[in-house]
Amino acid sequence: MINISWEQYVKYVDVICQEFKNKALFVRDIDSVYGIPRGGVILAVLLSHKLNLKYIDDIKKIDSNVLVVDDIFDSGNTINRFFKNLNLINIKTAAIVVNEKSNIKASFYSFFNISNEWINFPYEDCKYKCGRCHDTGEVILYELGESIKCPSCN
User: Fold this and answer.
1) What's the predicted TM-score (pTM) here?
2) Which of 53, 71, 125, 152 is the most buried (most CB within 10 A)?
């Protein structure tokens, strides 16, 4: 499992912003950002502020001028279904993480996950850090340095 802190998350957003600015001609028509609920909404709000893009939350307003974002392109199925259901083509996309196994790559992303390890984003965090013991396969937690069984995983 890869745990991403809020500090790291903001740095990853900055990487996307820099890439976006470096490709100004490629994105010159982008004036808005839409985040696929749930994980994409946080990224969309941050990109909206940092890139001075209008934040839209109405799926009916998506067109080729909108940057569509999600926190992760894991398998690529979410973004593919999203495009297919809305009959969208030539849409620019962004994600914090693109997994190697994803069948689609984001136009802008912060890192390419070749390990395909589970990504734990800071907004998904609770007081428990679930993991799996490499020896026994038992689900364990790390809370204040102690290993305990996860109440939601048992």
Assistant:
1) 0.78
2) 71
Domains of the chain: 2-120 (3.40.50.2020), 124-154 (no CATH)
What is the helix (H) or strand (E) element at residue 49, kind and residue range? Answer: helix 39-51
Cα-Cα-Cα-Cα dihedral sign, residues 80, 37, 49, 110 = negative
How many other CB atoms sit within 10 Å of the CB of residue 154? 7
Burial of 7 (0-12, 13-18, 19+ CB in 10 A): exposed
Helix 6-22 / helix 39-51 crossing angle, nearest 10 deg: 50
Q: Average pLDDT by consecutive 10-residue portion of the chain (154 residues)?
A: 89 94 82 92 96 93 91 89 80 92 92 84 63 42 45 48
